[in-house]
Amino acid sequence: MTTNVTEAAISWRGVKLRNEQFTLGPLDIEIPRGMVTAIVGPNGSGKSTLFRSLLGLEPIREGEATALGVRLNGCEDESYKREVGFLPENPYGHENSLTADEKAKFASGLYPNWDWEKYRKLLRHFDVDGSVKLSKMSKGMRRKAELSIAMSHDPELLLLDEPSSGLDPFAWKTMLEELQRYMEPGDRTLVLATHILEEIRRLADYILFLYRGKVLGLYEKDRLLDDWRTLVVQLSASGPGIEKLDATPGLQGLTEAGPGLYRLEVDSPEQGEQYCRACGFQVLGIQRMELEDILSCLIRKEEARR
Amino acid sequence: MWLPIRIDEQRPEPLYHQIEVQLRGLILGGQLQEGTMLPSIRELAVGLKCSAITIRRVYQDLENEGLIRTRQGTGTFVAGVETSVRDEHRLERASEELERALEAGLQLHCTFDELEGLFRDLIRRKKDSKEGSS
């Protein structure tokens, strides 16, 4: 991989997206090129709006957004769109009467890089019959067909909105393999919105965390996993009390786990541990945290700030 | 290609460090022979459920140490390692393991003399059983 980490595939500077129901932003982030960025957040946090803006479907009236070096303003030129692949969260109703092959035929006219060989390979790997009407396919089958079509022009930027919804575990595994293959050259950028943490564990390099239209942060996944730990601490009857625990450096969460036993969630574990020991608490264990626990901790913090 | 590397959730070391130490060990220990092709950065990242950034860092460090070579367009390969370097690593690893055993003994409130006695006993028994069986 020869990609420069600092190079951004997408950048938002002071971008605010507004529609009737919803404001997203301000966005001040850069999505690195050659990497997989997972967008996570509860429903309604702004993921789909973000995708729409990258497709030129949302006018950007405040701030500046660029993707693949092109400034986005709501009416992007065709050369930009050719380099983007997109799988929407829900299938388009107006395509119901098309077969997968007919939709592919249409797509092949839009994308000069369209590769029929790649399309057939993807369908074979996903075990999809391209001659079946999209409306006659099961949800998972249609998902596999649409994903194949979204990838068959080997786009520079691939945007997937909940790609695994409706997929059975076997198809899901095939999808992971295909996405891994897609990333292999090292210069492709994948942005996927997902609720499936296992997908994030396996695929993501970065996690963009959205919550109620706000960016809670863009994190390097392994940094997050390295930095966040659970400390299990035993207080003695004679020693200092729980109020001391509240001052633990990097403290993000504190729960009672038994009599005199506390579970601390910290994002600077070394200092946290030193502090606890210096206070005379007994540190019984230190463990990495699961991604879902880190994320819910971040949400709790944001909730408390509101 | 699958590599016998595993992340220990209890260890305080960051992911890249854990992976780097184990991969270095596989090369210096001779389990990975010169010329072996390593997984691509993305493949290893997916396999270990870590990010490509972490694996790239590991590969860069090991390349700087001369343990692996990246050939543009073909892949990453294990480089040749001199015997002296291997020996040094072998002794280093053994010393670490012994130190860990020593720590465990001290935690059980053994004295140094007791531990030394135990160690000599163990060596004598091992030697005897080896000579007996050969």
UniProtKB/TrEMBL annotation, chain A:
Keyword hit for Transport: yes
Alphabetical keyword list: ATP-binding, Nucleotide-binding, Transport
Alphabetical list of PROSITE patterns matching this protein: ABC_TRANSPORTER_1, ABC_TRANSPORTER_2
Gene3D superfamilies (UniProt xref): P-loop containing nucleotide triphosphate hydrolases (3.40.50.300)
Example GO molecular function: ATP binding
ABC transporter domain mapped to chain residues: 5-237
ATP-binding is among the record's keywords: yes
Protein name: ABC transporter ATP-binding protein
Taxonomic lineage from the root: Bacteria, Bacillati, Bacillota, Bacilli, Bacillales
TrEMBL record, chain B:
The organism's place on the tree of life at top rank: Bacteria
Provenance organism: Cohnella endophytica
Listed name of the protein: GntR family transcriptional regulator
PROSITE patterns in the cross-refs: HTH_GNTR (PS50949)
Transmembrane segment boundaries: none
InterPro entries xrefs: Tscrpt_reg_HTH_GntR, WH-like_DNA-bd_sf, WH_DNA-bd_sf
KW Nuclease (keyword) present: no
CDD domains, alphabetized: WHTH_GntR
Keywords tagged on the record: DNA-binding, Transcription, Transcription regulation
Annotated ranges, domain HTH gntR-type: 13-81
Molecular function via GO: DNA binding; DNA-binding transcription factor activity
